[in-house]
Amino acid sequence: MTQDQYISVRESAQILGVSEKKIMDLIEERKLEAYRIADQFLRLKRSEVLSLKNSGSVTPETGPIPYTTVERIADFFYFNDFYIISAILMGLLLYLIFYV
Fold first, then answer.
1. CATH topology of domain 1-66
2. What is the pTM of this model?
3. Closest residue by Cα to residue 5 from 45, 36, 42, 33
4. Per residue in 26-85, pLDDT tens?
5. SS3 of residue 82 by DSSP
6. What distance in Å separates the CA atoms of residue 7 and residue 60, rounded to the nearest whole number?
7. What's the CA gap between 5 and 99, in Å, rounded?
């Protein structure tokens, strides 16, 4: 297998030392080619990210990349939606069983 593995936006950001938003900006500027896997997952070729890094056209960002409260809440609901919906349904069913 060649080094043309597909990597995520987060992995690309870690390799280049920039934020995920910067990676999305580079995709919009057509400096990086993005591929959709199963029409859902956005991936980039590792070789293209490494060649962009070696070209020196992207400077790594210094300092911590902020993880805002809104992003934290969005991630919480994204990763726990099944459990939240299940708890609501169980509460509704218990209400129906005991009070109706």
1. Multidrug-efflux Transporter Regulator; Chain: A; Domain 2 (1.10.1660)
2. 0.57
3. 45
4. 999 998 988 888 877 789 999 999 999 998 888 887 777 677 899 889 989 989 999 999
5. helix
6. 18
7. 56
